[in-house]
Amino acid sequence: MLYLIGLGLGDAKDITVKGLEVVKHCRRVYLEAYTSVLTVGKEALEEFYGRELILADRETVEQEADNILKDADLCDVAFLVVGDPFGATTHSDLVLRAVKLGIPYSVIHNASIMNAVGCCGLQLYNFGETVSVVFWTDTWKPESFFDKIQKNKQNGMHTLCLLDIKVKEQSLENLMKGKKIYESPRYMSVNQAAEQLLAIVQNRRLQGEEPEVTENTHCVGLARVGAMDQKIASGTLQQMSTVELGGPLHSMIIAGNMHPLEIDMLKLFAVDKSSFEGNECQRNT
Questions:
Q1: Are 7 and 108 in contact (CB under 8 A)?
Q2: Taking the C-alpha atoms of 155, 83, 194 and 134 in order, what is their torsion angle to the nearest 10 degrees?
Q3: Is the pTM of this model over 0.85?
Q4: 3-state class percentages of the chain: helix first, strand second, coil last, to nearest 5
Q5: Hey, which residues does 170 pair with through a beta bridge?
Q6: Does residue 56 register a pLDDT over 80?
Q7: Helix (H), strand (E), coil (C) string for 125-163
Q8: What distance in Å separates the CA atoms of residue 125 and residue 92, rounded to the nearest whole number?
């Protein structure tokens, strides 16, 4: 049996009782190590679970999945994922591979950023399509995610922005030379995401557009959701470019139309409460 087990968002103790029981009896236990990270390292997990963990990076999961699935039709193998197992499409691919090989599978769910963002007070049923905000380079500055944010905004919906993670990535030069030399891990901050969005706003204006999202659009910055030191800040997009939220992981929400109750909740985390005065986003139920 292949078990896909969610680990939650905080530390080693966020695994469910059911998940921990499965981990303890599996022959092999893999820890997926590239779509997200916990606030504790592999060693802390091993100590709490009482098991050795095998790190599975992007290359292992996407190119060497057969090694993970080896003999899973004869013994139990666990694949641990920060958050919920189906927070990334990669894990659906693993399930499809298992089914094709006749290997049964079971999923043990857990909290993920997709539902834990409700901690800021914005209602989950008011969210539209989730987007990923990637690190720009000098030669690659995509804006497609901004169009999705604008579409959500036009429909009055909030947008959850998942911010880029670069773990065990190669530079273009090393990739072209075939050298397995990896860059230091990088985690996009709310400040960086806001700066890129502000740059897109300016670009659109230069093209003669007046975007739905502006410097004064209300946003929420979230850091280390689910951890003891989680931090939330609400304010304008401009304020998000300078707010201090500490270490990773960060997420950001671009607010759509807000119910008065949502606004009252965001005021609890406001960088400047005056930014919510006379808010044009209020709507009646």
A1: no
A2: -100
A3: yes
A4: 40, 20, 40
A5: 182
A6: yes
A7: HHECCCEEECCCCCCCCCCHHHHHHHHHHHCCCEEEEEE
A8: 24
